[in-house]
Amino acid sequence: xxxxxxxxxxxxxxxxxxxxxxxxxxxxxxxxxxxxxxxxxxxxxxxxxxxxxxxxxxxxxxxxxxxxxxxxxxxxxxxxxxxxxxxxxxxxxxxxxxxxxxxxxxxxxxxxxxxxxxxxxxxxxxxxxxxxxxx
Length: 135
Description:
The termini are far apart. This protein is 90% helix and 0% strand. It has a domain of 72 residues. The chain is an all-alpha fold and 135 residues long. It is rod-shaped, with a radius of gyration of 50 Å. It is a peripheral membrane protein. InterPro entries: Mod_r (IPR009851). Component of the ESCRT-I complex, a regulator of vesicular trafficking process. Required for the sorting of endocytic ubiquitinated cargos into multivesicular bodies. May be involved in cell growth and differentiation. Its main location: membrane. Belongs to the VPS37 family.
């Protein structure tokens, strides 16, 4: 009667008595192979969880150090980023100054060429005019 497979052989009255006897039900349950298997699995899980908790706690200082190192690296990255941004702005400003200088030199050269052409044309006209005037 201690095994659940024997419940079919019990009469209704015996089953009711069994249902009312909590100690007997607990005894039957504890004797069950399935219950024992589940209990062993639960014990293994508990041991496994304890081991994982110990490992996790032992890793905590390493994680803390890694977290601090990561924070320092992010600060370093931000400093480097600001230096690069400043250099980029300097180069952009320098490029704009050089571009403006190049543009002015180009315009001056173009104006000088136009002036030389204009002077040459004027001198030719004066020379031609003088030739016609002397005749």
